[in-house]
# Entry
Amino acid sequence: MLIDIIIPTYKPDEKLLAIVEKLKGQTIAPNRIVLINTEQKYMDNLLRGRNYDKTARHFEVRNVSRREFDHGATRNEGAKGSEADYLLFLTMDACPADDKLIEKMVAAFSDDSIAAVYARQLAGDGASVIEKFSRSFNYPPRSFVKSAEDKERLGIKTYFCSNACAMYRRDIFEKLGKFPKDMIFNEDMVFAHTLIENGYRIAYAADATVYHYHNYTNMQQFHRNFDLAVSQAMHPEVFGDVSSESEGMAYVKAAFSYFKREGKPFVIVPFVIQSAFRLCGYRLGKKYRKLGRRLILKCTASPEYFYKHWS
# Structure
């Protein structure tokens, strides 16, 4: 059984090498670790003088320009030429919580109908109270499996699958066309939709854990939700018949209960403010086609994506 790991990187630092070492020390060792890197000089500086051969069989670095980067196509590039049984996609800031991450993700492929498995994301010690709630809401302690039969019950959550740490059967990944290209965001959920609509199931492995969190500012949340909504507007076949805003309301209600239960009701005020920024970004992103270029560039976290399209 072979596992290939693909990690898009941007301006990597020492934390990335610590994650690489944790991956190499897993109970099921990866066959290959492929880094698809943007901004070559940062990777060159990081690896200079270290025992890493950028063209080695089991550790490879492929460089792309910021203009070339694409959330779907760049990950597909990392998977090109793989002969592994499974492909594990990680982000450069998702750190395995123990040495059994790969082992537990592989175990979650309990039958041939499960084509993808995503891990539980834990908030580390430096995470804010709001971020700790967010991780607990989206990544509960109980494992489960989702299929097309769950669409009415779960809505948009049916297609939730995070490439911060997600594993796919390579043969099915390739058969169904890999991740969609030209993606500003959400390549994982769009491909999850493809899996579900083709009769496959997606597993959430709560015992497979990584530390992954972001203490975003209000404006960063605004930009992120703008890009998220742009991706949804570009794929009505996925998001047109399921509601995201109802999920948002469930998120807010659960947050209030969480903060009170944790004895931190004072967090509700900054949470409400942050939620307003998120909602504004989301609603503007849904209508991005009606916005002028100058306003789009003020709203997005991915200006290169739009420049590429406009050119």
